Amino acid sequence: MPKWLIEGFQGGDPTGLSLEVTGHESRVILLLERLAARHLTDNEIVDATFGARTDLEIHRDKRLGEPTMLMTAGSDHHYVARMVR
Questions:
Q1: What burial class does residue 55 get, using C-beta atoms within 10 Å of its C-beta: 0-12 exposed, 13-18 middle, 19+ buried?
Q2: By three-state DSSP, how is residue 60 classified?
């Protein structure tokens, strides 16, 4: 099962959140969405869930075929998951 390093950022600065998790991509995506949602209002979460906002979208880096990095779309608070080999 893959290992991932999860890191949090505010703007371009690290927030201090850095943790390693083991799990499938679907679980890592769920975790990233939950972390990102903490910085949204209730209405913003509803809008992001139904596509009116992009805050909960996950971007995949597929340069090597399968995703080795996932990240939330937020520009202020955002989270990155990197696969650890």
A1: buried
A2: strand
